[in-house]
């Protein structure tokens, strides 16, 4: 039986203006589970993702690999790849190579090793040859691939994606979907794209007004009453 690698208990978070963004959320995620995080705009999806990697000062408990996120965030992040919704929030170097290599350099790896790892991940995502291109000259879909490469270059045990298919054309969505399906690791995917979820994920967490409305396997998405109640249909 797969081991539990993410444990969330009684998680709550308030924005600086006092608005309650998350309220008393609890769930577990097992190794190699692919979990969709669904909910209407403002339901708390992105806020929850930021809490999982220790970017927000939440209340409650989050443990990843048995370690408390608040106490071990830096160590935990080495095993977690995060892809932001907007690529321009993630890409900030002058070349694709420098963006993908950035986290490895921060960890002190030698340049020869970095070149091998960057080449491997770019080849896997079919963007080998983009190394010297400037990220701001890339198409939106190409930027998304580079962001995914920055997350995968560390061979993460957990991959977190925030709205991975937003603003992509149908062909790019199909391509990105196939890439995600081929990645064998635990995944948490925040999205509105129910068709994408049905093809990629095995479990669903549905948020409504900062609380868990439903939590279970992918068959939840066959329940039209749940989808209407959470503004997903």
Give a written overview of the molecule:
With 233 residues, this protein is of the alpha/beta class. It folds into two domains: 1-79 and 156-233, Rossmann fold; 91-155, no CATH class. It has helices spanning 45-52, 69-77, 96-106, 111-124, 140-152, 170-182, 194-200, 224-229, and strands spanning 4-14, 20-30, 34-38, 59-64, 67-68, 80-83, 158-162, 186-190, 203-208, 211-217. It has a six-stranded mixed sheet, with helices on both faces. Strands 2-1-4-5 form a four-stranded antiparallel sheet. Helix 3 crosses helix 4 and helix 3 (96-106) runs parallel beside helix 5.
Residue ranges: pLDDT <50 for 5 or more in a row? none
Helix content, binned percent: 25-40%
The spatial strand order of the largest sheet comes to 6-7-8-3-9-10
Strand content: 25-35%
Largest sheet: 6 strands, mixed
Question: Which H/E pattern describes the elements?
Answer: EEEHEEHEHHHEHEHEEH
CATH level-1 class of the largest domain:
Alpha Beta
The assigned CATH architecture of the largest domain is 3-Layer(aba) Sandwich
For the record, give the distance between the C-alpha atoms at the N and C termini, rounded to a whole number.
34 Å
Per DSSP E runs of 2 or more residues, the count of β-strands stands at 10
What would you call the structural class? alpha/beta
What is the typical, i.e. mean, pLDDT? Answer: 93
Shape: globular
Number of domains: 2
Q: Helical element count? A: 8
CATH topology title of the largest domain: Rossmann fold
What is the alpha-carbon Rg in Å? 18 Å
Task: Spell out the CATH superfamily of the largest domain.
Answer: P-loop containing nucleotide triphosphate hydrolases
